[in-house]
């Protein structure tokens, strides 16, 4: 069946972009079943507050546990995977995107302010698998942009979402290396020529050249990604 995704946020309008493009199509064609929910709808007090001051003091506000408990209780089952976007989480990778694309139900809990009361995460982990995911080593204002990135990376791996499945395996990171450079017509533009090998029709030589380019680019830009056997001392 389709992959079910539920997103909880205080900015549901953020996610209207998921109505368009590839993921919009995945939704209308029934491959992706997406629900976006306003966390404030689960607040119980008159002011619908979702945050409060931190125990122990410190700057900023912490998201209160009660609305999050009600929100997650409304969708989470033992078959769910609950994702808390957080700069303190594990770094999100293509490997993790592949893993998440095989799951039946993903729940994203978008935190704002200085974070969510830790008991919400601990309680969710007692009912379902919990993964804290970071986009990388920099700070965003909340989990919404990270959730968008994860939903896009995972959504395009759902079988049938990307028309030509070959375009999935020929990308950066799928084989552990960065992509080779791409060219299209015209053969000369602003005095710059397309590498002649690409016009030669020699498929094996083209494949070898592209592999070389991948290795060279990876060595230059992301040397830590290079497998041992491709590392050379200079
Ligand atoms: Cl997932 N959340 C926030 N707030 N900041 C981040 C992040 C996530 N990933 C990198 N920076």
Give the tags.
9 strands, Alpha/beta knot, five-stranded parallel beta sheet, alpha/beta, 234 residues, elongated, 19% strand, single chain, binds 6-chloroguanine, Trp Operon Repressor, Chain A, 7 helices, two-stranded antiparallel sheet
Characterization of the model:
- Helix 2 (about 65-75) packs parallel to helix 4 (about 120-125).
- The protein contains seven helices and nine strands.
- It is an alpha/beta fold.
- The model has no long low-confidence stretch (mean pLDDT about 95).
- Strand 5 (about 80-90), helix 3 and strand 6 form a beta-alpha-beta unit.
- The termini are far apart.
- The site of 6-chloroguanine has 13 residues, from strand 5 and strand 7.
Q: Give me the strand/helix succession.
A: EHEEEHEHEHEHHEEH
Please tell me how large the radius of gyration is: 22 Å
Q: Categorize the overall geometry.
A: elongated
List the total number of helices.
7
Strand composition percent: 15-25%
Low-confidence stretches: none
Number of strands: 9
Strand order of the largest sheet: 2-1-6-5-7
CATH class categorisation of the largest domain: Alpha Beta
Quickly give the CATH architecture of the largest domain: 3-Layer(aba) Sandwich
List the ions, cofactors and other small molecules found in this model. Answer: 6-chloroguanine
Structural class: alpha/beta
- How many domains make up the coordinates? 2
Kindly report the CATH topology of the largest domain.
Answer: Alpha/beta knot
The proportion of residues forming helix, as a percent range, comes to 25-40%
Quote the average pLDDT: 95
Describe the sheet with the most strands. 5 strands, parallel
CATH superfamily descriptor of the largest domain:
SPOUT methyltransferase, trefoil knot domain
Q: What's the N-to-C terminus distance?
A: 52 Å
